[in-house]
């Protein structure tokens, strides 16, 4: 495969629940997620070539060790609650890729990282909600990878580093989470904490020296407004995997919007 087909590693927001099929009250409003939809819809066109497959790390799957979804035809996991009935009829029939799942396990094992697989795991909403916009025809195989339950940032950077070779095989690595995730404050109309953390996160993630960026991100909990933005960090940790998979590629911010009064950003490496 030519060097031009090397894929990036991308951290993106998957919105809020089945957000693209709903209208929300203020401070969100009917068009709150239009900017994010536009970004996701254009993501494939921004790549150097069509990806051979996508490895997706969702903030909605945690296991004791990183676990790979190895199903050939993953089902659906509606892991959101209290939303309109039609949002539980969404379907995302993308194929899995058991061969890629096996390669992910080999790469992790070769790096000394304990891992497992789950042949029954389906697509949670951190996967199917953005992918229904990214690849609505569901033609690209999707393999999922869990977080490690302890959410240790350095461990997840190491996981990403082990998976870097996949990018040279045309595999797009996506971390699906959110740069701000404090559900208790989403409706409070207060923008300051999110903006403060977003500014720090962008500066850290886009350091010209990727090693320096990783070092900063590992210490994310020391950032201003860190715990106001992430009382629990499961939606941020996919960024650590992405930054780990960056290799020598510096990060850049590829998405930014204010949704419900909260600054939200996405980043790409490569």
From TrEMBL:
Keyword list, A-Z: Dioxygenase, Metal-binding, Oxidoreductase, Zinc
This protein's record includes keyword Oxidoreductase: yes
Ranges where the Extradiol ring-cleavage dioxygenase class III enzyme subunit B domain occurs: 30-258
Pfam family, one: LigB
Cofactor: Zn(2+)
Any one Gene Ontology molecular-function term assigned to this protein's record: oxidoreductase activity, acting on single donors with incorporation of molecular oxygen, incorporation of two atoms of oxygen
Similarity-based family: Belongs to the DODA-type extradiol aromatic ring-opening dioxygenase family.
Name of the protein described by the UniProt record: Aromatic ring-opening dioxygenase catalytic subunit LigB
Organism annotation: Acidisphaera rubrifaciens HS-AP3
């Amino acid at each position: 495969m030519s060097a031009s087909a090397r894929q990036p590693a991308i951290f993106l927001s998957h919105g809020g629940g089945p957000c693209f099929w709903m209208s929300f009250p203020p401070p969100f409003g009917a068009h709150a997620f239009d900017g994010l939809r536009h970004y996701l819809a254009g993501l494939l066109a921004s790549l150097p070539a069509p990806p051979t497959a996508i490895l997706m790390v969702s903030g909605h799957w945690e296991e004791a060790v990183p676990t790979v979804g190895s199903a050939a035809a993953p089902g659906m996991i509606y892991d959101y609650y209290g939303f309109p009935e039609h949002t539980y009829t969404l379907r995302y029939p993308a194929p899995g890729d058991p061969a890629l799942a096996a390669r992910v396990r080999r790469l992790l094992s070769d790096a000394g990282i304990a891992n497992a697989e789950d042949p029954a795991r389906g697509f949670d909403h951190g996967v199917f909600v953005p992918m229904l916009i990214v690849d609505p025809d569901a033609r690209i195989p999707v393999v999922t990878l869990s977080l490690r339950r302890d959410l240790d940032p350095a461990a997840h950077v190491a996981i990403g580093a082990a998976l870097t070779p996949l990018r040279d095989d045309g595999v797009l690595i996506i971390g699906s989470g959110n740069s701000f995730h404090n559900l208790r404050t989403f409706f409070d109309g207060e923008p300051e904490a999110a903006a403060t953390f977003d500014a720090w996160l962008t500066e850290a993630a886009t350091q010209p020296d990727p090693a320096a960026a990783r070092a900063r991100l590992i210490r994310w909990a020391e950032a201003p407004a860190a715990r106001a933005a992430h009382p629990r960090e499961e939606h941020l940790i996919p960024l650590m995997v992405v930054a780990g998979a960056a290799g020598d590629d510096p990060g850049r911010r590829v998405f930014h919007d204010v949704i419900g009064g909260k600054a939200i950003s996405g980043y790409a490496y490569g």
